[in-house]
UniProtKB/TrEMBL annotation:
Keywords: ATP-binding, Coenzyme A biosynthesis, Cytoplasm, Magnesium, Nucleotide-binding, Nucleotidyltransferase, Transferase. Its main location: cytoplasm. This is Phosphopantetheine adenylyltransferase. It comes from Dorea phocaeensis. Substrate binds at S9, K41, L73, R87. GO terms for biological process: coenzyme A biosynthetic process. It is found in: Cytoplasm. It comes from the Bacteria.
Amino acid sequence: MLRAIYPGSFDPVTFGHIDIIRRSASMVDELIVGVLNNNAKIPLFSVEERVRMLEKVLKDMPNVKCIPFEGLLVDFAHETGARMVIRGLRAITDFEYELQMAQTNHKLRPDVETVFLTTSLEYSYLSSTTVKEVAAFGGDISQFVPEYVADRIKEKMKQKGECKS
């Protein structure tokens, strides 16, 4: 069984993430969407909220599991039995960082390979940061995230007093 991990913070999950997840899920027997609890960032959503949102929008993909993690990605891969890490690339600037991480991960765990997928052209500009910024200024984010996620973002920003509309 080929098991892979697609890691990220997914704060929030975007159509770009979902595109990479769909494409990845078709290439492996099981895809684990690893939801990173990154203490270096202050997320809009808790890791539990991000997992719930992902589970909701990915419910039609039976070979996809959403699991929170913290620490080293390669340790998480080892714990879950994943032999492959999938990373999406939007631009050449992503490649430089991702290549360095892939090489470091390979040094730490040579049995875990990293595979890069280029982002579909229609999502190459999209990032979670951009979505949050547009939402904070009251912009329409329906073209960036599923409706369920857009509703959660608006609710969360109103709770935190970050939304201009």
